[in-house]
Amino acid sequence: MAMQFLSDNAASVHPAVWRAMQAADAPDSPYDGDALSQQLDKAFSEMFGRPCAALWVATGTAANCLALAALVPPEGGVICHHTAHIENDECGAPGFYLHGAKLMLAEGEGAKLTPEAIAAVIDSIRMDVHRVHPHAVSITQATERGRVFTPSEVAALGQCAQDRKLGLHMDGARFGNAVAHLGCSPAAISCDAGVDALSFGFTKNGAMGAEAIVFFEPAVADVIRFRRKRAGHLQSKGRFLAAQILAMLENGLWLENARAANAAAQEIATAAGERLLEPVEANEIFLRLEAREAAVLREQGFGFYDWGENGARIVTAWDSRPEHCTALAQAIAAL
Amino acid sequence: MAMQFLSDNAASVHPAVWRAMQAADAPDSPYDGDALSQQLDKAFSEMFGRPCAALWVATGTAANCLALAALVPPEGGVICHHTAHIENDECGAPGFYLHGAKLMLAEGEGAKLTPEAIAAVIDSIRMDVHRVHPHAVSITQATERGRVFTPSEVAALGQCAQDRKLGLHMDGARFGNAVAHLGCSPAAISCDAGVDALSFGFTKNGAMGAEAIVFFEPAVADVIRFRRKRAGHLQSKGRFLAAQILAMLENGLWLENARAANAAAQEIATAAGERLLEPVEANEIFLRLEAREAAVLREQGFGFYDWGENGARIVTAWDSRPEHCTALAQAIAAL
Amino acid sequence: MAMQFLSDNAASVHPAVWRAMQAADAPDSPYDGDALSQQLDKAFSEMFGRPCAALWVATGTAANCLALAALVPPEGGVICHHTAHIENDECGAPGFYLHGAKLMLAEGEGAKLTPEAIAAVIDSIRMDVHRVHPHAVSITQATERGRVFTPSEVAALGQCAQDRKLGLHMDGARFGNAVAHLGCSPAAISCDAGVDALSFGFTKNGAMGAEAIVFFEPAVADVIRFRRKRAGHLQSKGRFLAAQILAMLENGLWLENARAANAAAQEIATAAGERLLEPVEANEIFLRLEAREAAVLREQGFGFYDWGENGARIVTAWDSRPEHCTALAQAIAAL
Amino acid sequence: MAMQFLSDNAASVHPAVWRAMQAADAPDSPYDGDALSQQLDKAFSEMFGRPCAALWVATGTAANCLALAALVPPEGGVICHHTAHIENDECGAPGFYLHGAKLMLAEGEGAKLTPEAIAAVIDSIRMDVHRVHPHAVSITQATERGRVFTPSEVAALGQCAQDRKLGLHMDGARFGNAVAHLGCSPAAISCDAGVDALSFGFTKNGAMGAEAIVFFEPAVADVIRFRRKRAGHLQSKGRFLAAQILAMLENGLWLENARAANAAAQEIATAAGERLLEPVEANEIFLRLEAREAAVLREQGFGFYDWGENGARIVTAWDSRPEHCTALAQAIAAL
Lengths: 335, 335, 335, 335
Hints:
- Four copies of one chain form a homotetramer.
- The first copy, chain A, has helices at about 15-25, 40-50, 60-70, 85-90, 95, 115-125, 150-165, 175-180, 220-230, 240-250, 255-270, 290-300, 320-335; strands at about 5, 55, 75-80, 100-105, 135-140, 165-170, 195-200, 210-215, 285-290, 300-305, 305, 310-315.
- By secondary structure, chain A is of the alpha/beta class.
- Chain A has a seven-stranded mixed β-sheet, with helices on both faces. In chain A, strands 9-12-11 form a three-stranded antiparallel β-sheet, with helices on one face.
- In chain A, a hairpin with a 4-residue loop joins strand 11 (about 305) and strand 12 (about 310-315).
- In chain A, helix 1 packs across helix 10 (about 240-250).
- The longest helix of chain A has 20 residues, at about 255-270.
- Chain A is globular and about 55 Å long.
- The two termini of chain A are about 20 Å apart.
- The interface between A and B is large, with 47 and 48 residues.
């Protein structure tokens, strides 16, 4: 049987999530009128230490796009890294949800935006109506290269966004992994650092299909409640999505799972040593691997993606089996 | 405790669906690359007796809009009944998914379209570029008034659509209830009668959140696979949606559940007698009920919606408890 | 040769407009940076007695849609009369420009909306996210039935819009004809009565292809400058559009031309007498006319549209030739 | 007075165009039902030696976007050069008209796309639904760097597009200048070379505000007639746009004007000599010019844009005055 390190996006569902979903299988109001959905705002407000509005959706693409829809009008643009998920992996969903708004691509080491990279994009734009002007910045935490923005790095971006009158969105598909890596509070890399809207991912981290869109200015969420319905994302049995998220929040399961995934990645990273193309800060390992070497690993039953020429991406998940990780680490060391 | 007849949209999840979902909690490919998702085309092709392409989505709104997106360009229109769900209950989702295409409203007894009603809409449209022209017809089976199109009624609409070069979409949120009522094959009121795309609903009928978009011309589905992703509806753990649908199809659970809901409705309908505003053909009962009478029922613990003045809507579900139904029937009879 | 009463939309261009356009054929800045375009805000501010922002576009459809784009988000709706031009004659342009926002149709005698008709639409809408909610009202002055809203009628709508927190747009394709009929100030039926955005039509009234979108809250125009460019309506030689509009404003040419068209309509209306289906308040005459009678008129060389069964629409323009009008009046009287 | 070389986009209107417009000021059918508009298909069919459908619009942005709308669905993409007008100078209009379709940027010397550059874009795209896939290529003739694709270069792109099943659009805002430079037939760099849709520009070349969208597969135009109306670009007095275009076609005025602009550019280019950053093949000159030198030229009354650091763009037009061109040539030579 394959030892799977292709992605965390198809990982199994945590038992606590299953239990919560089954407990939710009792009559209640449809859509988000049920008791569980009604608890979300409070749960996230407590986590972030300020009033939040939180909406569930089933996918990260929907979370990102609905979050951005609160910040960007159709004639505007979103500055993001050229490797961003919204640019490369969502089939143009931002163009659909934002009615043709433009993604404006920036550079940055480790798939990380910087104030300088943002400035470089903006400063190249003539101030006239012939150009699309950015209305928001979107960053990914952890990044598409498995890197983590520190609180001060996010704060610098937050300041930059504020100075430029831009909204700041965080694609937190692996937000938990970032918090686990940093050992900081969730607020320290989001609202306290100037983030306006956060896609807080749970699906990769133990849920079945549930993400929270967290708005740190609760009134902003009102229009997005309409947009969610309009996009067909207001599930009638929404209580099952709320149940997943609440289970993930309870007793810090989200953080515990993220730590497990990160630890698994560290074991493999240590074995990879000089091969590493990026510091391993979350649950993704990018490493040099020749085609011949990749073949050797695959023959031993390890599944992972090639990444560019002579490169590979290995992803651990909350449920990566320790024996698989150890085996992979050993196999890499033995190459 | 309330005896709930508000809607079937928040009904509980069938045990067989739970079992199938749990069985799906093993590593597999993400999105719709898993073994279960790959079975859908075959399963529906067998059901309908011809090659079909079937895509899962989590909501009826997404199913309807993605189905229509295959039939209607942005500058076109969709003829539907003025009470249609796509017109009244989806927050303008067709306008979003179809990029501004227009819903063109028709009349019809029992919320049923007829070739005559369609002709009346079309014939009022000048043949020039100043007018929006219809590209499709959308009908609801069972209708928003709990009525069921017979095979010959659908076939007449199918013929009309073909004559007018219009696509034909069926919103089958309660498709199972219609089949259960008619005792016909699923094909008899869909593909055999000229339907091009069917939103086959399972969420109201025992699933957690899963609907199938069935295209009877499989190639049509290709573009919709992109549109589904673009709309954020391609869940990464899609195997759990496929599992729900396959469980509903297995041993005809969808039909069994629909029959149960219909039977429950019949019991209540019989008691309602002269009060009925519509023949009860599926699982919805529309009846005359004065405010005073509605209050009496609610005091006894029955939940339902008022429907216009001196009217009420009662909806049964696959899991309506027999004792609740009997109690409601008796309470109505006793008014 | 035909004596043309089909529409005012293809009327000839006034000599003063030609002169102004030719005078504009000297080097200047492109787009709306030229000296003439820069005068528009001031010219309309003087006309309306308050600060206005005015943008030229070439067509009424663009004017209406860009005006509404300032008032209505994609998930919102626009209440308009079921005969409105935006509903029937713009090929769904509002759906395109407003990204799928919905037109919500109201009734009203003489194609006129009333606060009651608006209330009837709004009051039928449940206050939830499943329904589209209106964000603006659009009225046509003069209406699609050639009727004119009085200042107090517009003010009542303005009050209603304000009470309901709706924007108010006026499609003034024949705004001049309305002012000419009423003998009031332009402000009395627009900004002073609560109108937020006015499509001020000149093309039907002596220009070649130029309309002004007038915003009575100038800051609102800023986003529309981007939307105009984005829609391909920022002509590079915009000075020729500005020239048309300024020529129409100079010495009240717009009002003089509208009066001429109205007077021509009155002559014909007087002859029509009992045949009139609507009071003639602007430059359109709706009258009973049997097919046989219509044929008689057409044989004499008069061009006009049938309007429903046994009805006809006759439109005069600023350049309707007096001898043609007199001839038509006599021909109608002689039927 | 300034000697203007900023752009050809605000050049004056040719006397023959004025005459044609004035001759068109007689009663005729509205929109594109008039005799002049009806001649366009034939006129372009003769020019290109095959059946064409040609639609007028007022701006290049509208022409480009409506042409692309015939080739690219909302979920698709358009490959273009990163300096393309549709990318940089239309305020995101393609995103609006194509409902969120994506522009996919390619590299190329002289702002020219090549089959290799197109292949590089396509080959980087995984074949799955997570990525946007291109449906068309758009090239600019002459390019944004004043360069001209030869017939064989266009044919190579046409072959590449056909091999890849992509549509091919040509933004011909300066199509006349390209033909004038090459001395070839219009067909040689368009339909004969695989171009599907051409934005044939006249506004920069002597018209007031008129461009033709030419479809070499006439049936394709049908849907675009609706899209044009829907975008508010179907002017009611369309005869004035048709008149401009027909006047430009008559006796090859478009070519004569383009030759004049090109010749003016050559005179300046010769003087610029070693300063040239690009070969001058049309009517744009890109040259090295230090800030100090630019200031010297501006003091002498010459108007032009800076272009990057130590660079400038000089544009000639059909009406550039010979004495101004000679003066500029001498001034540059004297630097």
